[in-house]
Amino acid sequence: MRADGVEIAAKCGHNLTFAAAIPDRMTLSFEDFPVGRLGSFGPRHVTREEILEFAGEYDPQPMHLDEEAAKKTMLKGLSGSGWHLCAVMMRMMFDGFLGRAASLGSPGVNELRWVAPLRPGDDVTLDVDVTEARISRSRPETGIVTFKGVARNAAGQVLCEMVSPIIISRRASAG
Amino acid sequence: MWYFEDINVGRRREVGSFTFTADEIKRFARKYDPQRFHLSEEEGRKSLFGGLAASGWHVASVCMKLMVTGAQRLAREAVARGETIAASGPSPGFRDLRWIKPVMAGDTVSYVSEVESKRTSDSRPEWGIVEIRNTGTNQRGEVVFSYLGTGFVPRRNPGSAQK
């Protein structure tokens, strides 16, 4: 884990220290997300079974379900649904920092690019940067933090890039 | 499913409807988005959502599910009529995805797809690129979800000048 990841982990540890006294106190507030590198998260191992399970339920195209059919497609082999990769990135953000943040939800995703296919057995890492952080005009007790997430496989190949704002409470209101 | 040449800008298709039960919402959230307001009715009530709300990624994944299964059904019908069908390609991504209103436990979302633009690909002459606006509307007629997706569609006449 990189130094910036350690910093986040320390903040999470800080959370644990106070957890007994204030059980639902969130440690990471808007102020904890200045513009710049937030951290690197993962690796998250994605199994063939998980790819087939997600695709079977949400994206049952042959390129995500059938090895032989997938070989004949543009992606040249079995690949995970792009929406599965989105869900995996979401979970990595939750495990990495969002689960300890005073997140109020997200209004959307500005842009998302599926750059290379997710393959069975991939170990996905996620680099997250804060590209913008501003106080909400309509709800000044909250801020809007825009994250850029870049998912890569173990070879360092970019799989997906995503830019998404998340609404996070300011520390003053977390009181 | 359809060739690039068959797709008209403005084509609108009802994709299907899905009811987000509390169990389904929690099942998706436990795996991929375990924020408290997606896991518990009580935590949801304390949140901005005012109740148990589906993960936005769940709302998006269900849209994909209905689009794929709907297209597969139409393809089977086309094959039964003796028509040639084309296999659509992967998507390079999307933009302008908006979770406009929360999808709450018990809500039924109806999805609609509308072709917004089409163009040929310079780097892949056998493919065209189509942009489709997918929208989800709840049972009260409120638009809850929208995004502009991009997809590769095979050309019937690769290399022809059609835009």
Query: What is the fourth-level CATH superfamily of chain B?
Result: Hotdog Thioesterase
Number of helices of chain B: 3
CATH architecture of chain B: Roll
What is the number of beta strands of chain A? 6
**CATH fold topology of chain A:** Thiol Ester Dehydrase, Chain A
Question: Order of strands side by side in the largest beta sheet of chain B?
Answer: 1-3-4-5-2
Number of helices of chain A: 6
Percentage of residues in strands of chain B = 25-35%
The CATH class of chain B turns out to be Alpha Beta
Percentage of residues in helical conformation of chain A: 25-40%
Rg of chain A from C-alpha positions?
18 Å
Can you characterise this structure?
The complex is a heterodimer of chains A (175) and B (163). With 175 residues, chain A is an alpha+beta fold. Chain A has helices at 3-19, 48-58, 62-65, 67-71, 82-96, 171-174, and strands at 36-45, 103-105, 108-114, 123-135, 142-152, 158-169. In chain A, strands 1, 2, 3, 4, 5 and 6 form a six-stranded antiparallel β-sheet that branches. Chain A starts with a helix and ends with a helix. The model of chain A is unreliable at 1-25 (pLDDT under 50). Chain B has helices at 22-32, 41-46, 56-80; strands at residues 12-19, 93-99, 108-120, 127-137, 143-154. In chain B, strand 3 and strand 4 (127-137) form a beta hairpin. Chain B is elongated and about 60 Å long. The A-B interface holds A 57-63, 73-75, 79, 81-83, 86-88, 90-91, 94, 98-99, 103-114, 117, 167 and B 31-35, 37, 47-49, 53, 55-57, 60-62, 64-65, 68-69, 72, 87, 89-99, 102, 127, 147, 152.
